[in-house]
Amino acid sequence: MLNLSAVHHIALICSDYETSKRFYTNILGLSILGEYFRAERQSYKLDLALNGQYILELFSFPNPAERPSRPEALGLRHLAFAVPDLDAAIAHLNEKGIVTEPIRVDEHTGRRFTFFADPDDLPLEFYEV
Question: What CATH number is associated with residue 48?
């Protein structure tokens, strides 16, 4: 049997590297573990952590293909972050000019959550735990 121990990281490709870097660090509060420019690919790679744990790679590539639809396109549907206080998390985003969808309730757990978008309109979720 395969012995998976955890999700190591999630990788995102962005259209505007500096804008996405500011969003994930200044607005969501992820910390930078490493930042690299790969000249052979004309690509930046940014390694980001949440509470000291490596979770996200942010890439820039010249002329990336657009996502066909949101959020029900084939592939990754959304990236969800656990938050202890959904109302405070929403207020933080709204203060930064980021629109959130109406709060929903998970029919199986009774927990509240909301969706919003990153600078490339990738769907993100805050899930109250």
Answer: 3.10.180.10
